[in-house]
Amino acid sequence: MAHGGYGKRRVAEGKRVGRRSKGPGLDKKLKPKAVSLKNQIRSIERMLRKDLPPEVREAQETKLEGLKKQQEIHTRLAVERKLFLRDRKIKFFERRKIERRIRRLEKQQRTSPGQAQDMEIAEQLSKLKEDLEYVRFFPKTEKYVSLFTGGDGSDLIDRRNRLRKQIKANLVAAAASGKDLEGTVFLHHSNIIL
């Protein structure tokens, strides 16, 4: 007992004393490893190449269709998230800029005495509200085309107009089907989770 204390560390009454574990992984409960969609699809496709009874084959084919739909949804959501994360800053600033202009014009409209000036302000307001609709309801799967930057080339203007028509059609379809319009919105800056 040169170092002192070894006598105190003896095993008392057959119980183990110390901090060592009982073995690798014995303390943890074993969980089955999650198999990826890609691997599940591949294994079912391999199974379908073999001779199987018709009911088993049919069940596996329906399972395969379901897995392929899940994979398609997963890849679409990944694309949407990638585009959202890339474009959220510019969309936020453009939305704020448009909202500021709308507030300014509404204030002018309340204070302006002239009828001709009111018509001009109302026209500008409707244009700005269309721009706000463009920013808020831009398609999730498209790369964002900015309203204020990028120049005014004819191809860029054509693309913006095509996207505006698509957005209006999506909004009309959502209203006709009774969907919540905010559900079709590309997420605002505060809601980042997809």
From TrEMBL:
For this chain, the family text in UniProt reads:
Belongs to the EFG1 family.
What taxonomic ancestry is recorded?
Eukaryota, Viridiplantae, Streptophyta, Embryophyta, Tracheophyta
Q: What is this protein called?
A: rRNA-processing protein EFG1
- Where is the protein found, in the record's own terms? Nucleus, Nucleolus
Q: Which GO terms describe its biological process?
A: maturation of SSU-rRNA from tricistronic rRNA transcript (SSU-rRNA, 5.8S rRNA, LSU-rRNA)
Q: What is its main location?
A: nucleus
Which is an annotated Pfam family here? Answer: Efg1
The yes or no answer to whether the keyword Coiled coil is present is yes
According to the record, the residues making up region (Disordered) are 1-34
What keywords tag this UniProt record?
Answer: Coiled coil, Nucleus, rRNA processing
- Reply yes or no: does the keyword Ribonucleoprotein apply: no
Q: Which organism is it from?
A: Gossypium australe
Of the GO CC terms on this record, one is: preribosome, small subunit precursor
Residues making up the signal peptide according to the UniProt record: none
